[in-house]
Design brief:
146 residues, mainly alpha, Four Helix Bundle (Hemerythrin (Met), subunit A), 88% helix, Metal_resist, Heavy metal resistance protein
């Protein structure tokens, strides 16, 4: 094998591994969110007794947010695919890779902002005697487990 062939083969293998790693990291981030969100939803209903009016309003918020979240998660998967393609093309941290990373960061930020807007919209539906329990559950959800 010539040195140029070895270098090109190594570059292709490294680009492929980087693309796979990016897709795996993105996939893990997305797969954890629904599970943790489900846990959060369960804890809210376990710790806070909502009246029928609150339940109906929260269900409406949940339905709207589910659509918004699914759209942003699909965008993030597409961003990861573009990142993988850019890595495969450039075999380096070139302009297309940097642009793809920036795009995925914008999408992640939009998802986080939408999630916070949803959380605060739910909080506004609560009575003052419910907000302390709500705040505890939200803080728990944002605090990494040791």
């Amino acid at each position: 094998m010539t040195p140029a062939f070895r270098r090109n083969a190594l570059t292709v293998v490294l680009a492929f591994l980087a693309a796979v790693a990016g897709v795996m990291v993105g996939g893990r981030m997305l797969s954890r969110s629904p599970h943790h969100g489900t846990e959060l939803h369960m804890l809210l209903h376990q710790d806070i007794m909502f009246d029928a009016k609150q339940e109906a309003a929260i269900n409406g918020l949940e339905a709207r947010f589910a659509v918004q979240r699914a759209t942003l998660e699909a965008q993030l998967r597409a961003d990861n695919a573009r990142l993988a393609a850019a890595i495969e093309r450039e075999h380096d941290n070139g302009p297309a890779v940097a642009a793809a990373v920036d795009r995925s960061h914008r999408t992640m930020g939009a998802l986080q902002k939408a999630t916070l807007a949803h959380v605060f919209a739910m909080r506004r539906l609560m009575r003052p005697d419910q907000t302390a329990a709500f705040d505890r559950v939200v803080v728990w959800a944002l605090t990494p487990a040791p």
